[in-house]
Amino acid sequence: MRMFRTALAAFALTILPAGAALAQLSPPVARVTGNLAVHAGPGSDYRVIDRVRNGESVLLAECTRGQAWCRIEGSGWVRGSYLVGMAAKERVSPVPLLDPLFRDQRGHRGWGLMPCGSFDPFC
């Protein structure tokens, strides 16, 4: 089992850079679903600075972990759930952290993606 994990990790390390390079060829564009308020920061507590219309295509600059909020290039932040274009959102989101003490639903230990918690207000 250990050899399989090592081989899988080595394979992933060789494939991921190539995939990332291909993904960079197209800009991270998403489509807006609904008429959205654009906020000055990633949260509804920030003031509204603009609006985007339903069906409008927007260029994304970044998203918070979990894509709860995304920043439109040259503008402000909108709720990520109203943007269609998962590939675009994932390209501009932080990479999930690997946690060596991760426990799955059955309580088994192993490497896994760290779930969002209280340490990250933007999950």
Low-confidence stretches: 117-123
Beta-strand portion reads: 25-35%
Q: Provide the spatial order of strands within the biggest beta sheet.
A: 6-5-4-1-7
Roughly what is the average pLDDT, rounded to an integer?
A: 75
Strand runs, count: 9
What composes the largest sheet? 5 strands, antiparallel
Total of helices: 2
- Rg (C-alpha, Å): 18 Å
Number of domain units: 1
Q: What is the H/E string? A: HEEEEEEEHEE
Query: Which of globular, elongated, flat, extended, rod-shaped describes the shape?
Result: globular
CATH topology term: SH3 type barrels
**End-to-end C-alpha gap:** 32 Å
CATH class: Mainly Beta
Describe this entry's structure for a reader.
- It is a single chain.
- This protein has 123 residues and is an alpha+beta fold.
- The chain has one domain: SH3 Domains (SH3 type barrels, Roll).
- Helix content is 23%, strand content 27%.
- It has a 5-stranded antiparallel sheet. Strands 2-3 form a two-stranded antiparallel sheet. It has a two-stranded antiparallel ribbon with strand order 8-9.
- It is globular.
- The two termini are 32 Å apart.
- The C terminus is likely disordered.
- It comes from Devosia enhydra.
- InterPro entries: SH3-like_bac-type.
- Pfam families: SH3_3 (PF08239).
- Keywords: Signal.
- This is SH3 domain-containing protein.
